[in-house]
UniProtKB/TrEMBL annotation:
<dbReference type="InterPro" id="IPR001128">
    <property type="entry name" value="Cyt_P450"/>
</dbReference>
<dbReference type="InterPro" id="IPR036396">
    <property type="entry name" value="Cyt_P450_sf"/>
</dbReference>
<dbReference type="InterPro" id="IPR002397">
    <property type="entry name" value="Cyt_P450_B"/>
</dbReference>
<dbReference type="GO" id="GO:0020037">
    <property type="term" value="F:heme binding"/>
</dbReference>
<dbReference type="GO" id="GO:0006707">
    <property type="term" value="P:cholesterol catabolic process"/>
</dbReference>
<dbReference type="GO" id="GO:0008395">
    <property type="term" value="F:steroid hydroxylase activity"/>
</dbReference>
<keyword id="KW-0503">Monooxygenase</keyword>
<protein>
    <submittedName>
        <fullName>Methyl-branched lipid omega-hydroxylase</fullName>
        <ecNumber>1.14.15.14</ecNumber>
    </submittedName>
</protein>
<dbReference type="GO" id="GO:0036199">
    <property type="term" value="F:cholest-4-en-3-one 26-monooxygenase activity"/>
</dbReference>
<dbReference type="Pfam" id="PF00067">
    <property type="entry name" value="p450"/>
</dbReference>
<comment type="similarity">
    <text>Belongs to the cytochrome P450 family.</text>
</comment>
<keyword id="KW-0479">Metal-binding</keyword>
<keyword id="KW-0408">Iron</keyword>
<keyword id="KW-0349">Heme</keyword>
<keyword id="KW-0560">Oxidoreductase</keyword>
<dbReference type="GO" id="GO:0005506">
    <property type="term" value="F:iron ion binding"/>
</dbReference>
């Protein structure tokens, strides 16, 4: 009886759902994300020109994907409006996209990025202090020392792959140091994060053996990381230090302690958010400065004056994070469309960051662009990237060290891209220098 009711409900939902996609564009298909970045951006431009947000149906895969379907927000004004209005555009049940099935949160806990205030604000407050300019100034010396060591190693080994030798090393070191993860555990942590992010983004062919293998690897990686942090958390509860894990396990928000699950999901969030994003910004940055030598020369002509604008332009131009999602809590009009409560929207940052309504010559990489109101760190609102200033500091220190000690530094060939609709990732980038 219940099965029949559910089937009927599904049929009604299918019949009343708008047609999926438009003009041959399918943001849900992995084939879309496998195309060169310029072609994807051209499709986003076509979607922007359509005006009204386009609906994309997502396949439902039992136990794996909710298969809810979403409207794509591709205009800057719409992404900003949805980010700002968190009461109507909720981050629950999940802001990560595609939407994970409900059992995942039950087993592994919910990271704060998938929560609304006041729960979200309560958790954000616990870690916020670690990201203030005052606290970041304290770790600047450690970031500098790590950048120096990375370049020492490049000089000793010779240049092969910029991602493995440079871009992947700094962010993982920094976030692990902040969390108090011992040096010897870091390669293991990095391998677990890679396994988690390999299975990311919007995937169409979910039933393929490769996708299922990736899914298994992803879940196993989460379990491994949760085990590691549970052990670390126990140790820090007994013997607190000044790291983030100590702050998390000894926090007492509203008289409650963080549960083991809450701790685990916090840990995943900070590791994934603090690692992939900055790594990809570094790798894309080197490629951009190689393809645009005039901009590199402009930067190197007055590094301190130019680097701030250069970092914002890298993040705008590249959009290291491609999308986050929201669920409507009530009927609401946006971008010429009347949404219903329960509808899903996905905020596509690369599309918003190239919107000609806001950015003159949006496809030009211009480190002097001002103002540069990009949404690469998310739109304004309660979920605006917590680690943006940390990422800025890492990029500033790393590029200075690289360009000072490796004259003629440049990418030496085309990057290999991560196949993902979530991370705009580079997995390999050959590089060289003349010194
Ligand atoms: C270039 C680097 C980075 C980019 C492009 C980036 C991008 C983003 C974006 C787009 C969001 C918005 C999520 C939403 O609106 O739902 C976000 C949130 C977040 N980011 Fe970043 N991020 C970067 C670096 C970092 C770093 C270094 C950390 C440090 C741990 C970090 C931690 C976070 C956290 C914890 C959130 C969730 C905030 C909340 O829900 O209140 N990010 N980031």
């Amino acid at each position: 009886m219940r099965a029949a009711q559910e089937r009927r409900r599904d049929t009604v939902a299918l019949n009343s759902a708008p047609p999926s996609g438009k003009a041959g564009i399918d943001l849900v298909s992995m084939a879309f994300w496998d195309r060169p970045p310029e072609q994807r951006l051209a499709d986003f431009a076509r979607l922007r020109e359509l005006g009204e947000p386009v609906y994309f149906a997502e396949p439902r895969v039992p136990f794996v994907r909710s298969g809810t379907g979403f409207y794509a927000l591709v205009r800057h004004a719409d992404v900003v409006a949805a980010s700002r209005n968190a009461k109507v555009f909720s981050s629950e049940p999940a802001a990560t996209s595609p939407e994970p099935p409900p059992w995942l949160a039950k087993v592994f806990g919910t990271p704060m990025v998938n929560m609304d205030d006041p729960r979200h604000a309560r958790l954000r407050r616990i870690v916020f202090r670690a990201f203030t300019p005052k606290m970041l100034a304290k770790i600047e010396g450690d970031i500098q020392a790590t950048a120096t060591r990375i370049v020492d190693d490049v000089l000793a080994e010779g240049p092969r792959d910029f991602v493995a030798q440079v871009a992947a090393r700094l962010p993982i070191h920094v976030i692990c140091a902040m969390m108090g993860i011992p040096e010897r555990a870091r390669p293991y942590v990095l391998s677990r994060i890679d396994a988690m992010t390999e299975y990311s983004g919007v995937r169409g062919s979910l039933a393929s053996p490769r996708t299922l293998r990736l899914l298994y690897g992803n879940l196993k990686a989460i379990v491994d990381l949760h085990r590691l942090v549970a052990r670390l958390g126990e140790a820090r509860r007994r013997d607190p230090s000044d790291d983030l894990v100590s702050a998390l396990v000894n926090a007492n928000p509203d008289g409650e302690r963080l549960s083991v699950k809450e701790l685990g999901s916090f840990f995943d969030l900070l590791l994934v958010a603090g690692n992939e994003t900055t790594r990809n910004a570094l790798a894309h940055g080197l490629k951009l400065f190689t393809d645009h030598p005039d901009q590199r020369d402009l930067l190197l002509g007055d590094y301190d004056a130019r680097i701030g604008g250069a970092i914002e332009e890298i993040v705008r131009y590249v959009s290291p994070i491609i999308q986050f999602r929201r669920t409507l809590t009530e009927d609401h009009e946006l971008g010429g469309h009347r949404f219903r409560a329960g509808d899903k929207v996905v905020l596509f940052y690369p599309a918003a960051n190239r919107d000609p309504e806001v950015f003159a010559d949006p496809d030009v990489f211009d480190i002097t662009r001002s103002p540069n109101p990009h949404v690469g760190f998310g739109g304004p609102g309660p979920h605006l990237c917590l680690g943006a200033n940390l990422a800025r500091m890492e990029l500033k220190i790393m590029f200075r060290e690289l360009y000072t000690r490796l004259p003629g530094l440049r990418a030496d060939g085309e990057p290999e891209y991560l196949l993902s609709g979530f991370d705009n990732g580079i997995t390999r980038l050959p590089f060289t220098y003349t010194g």
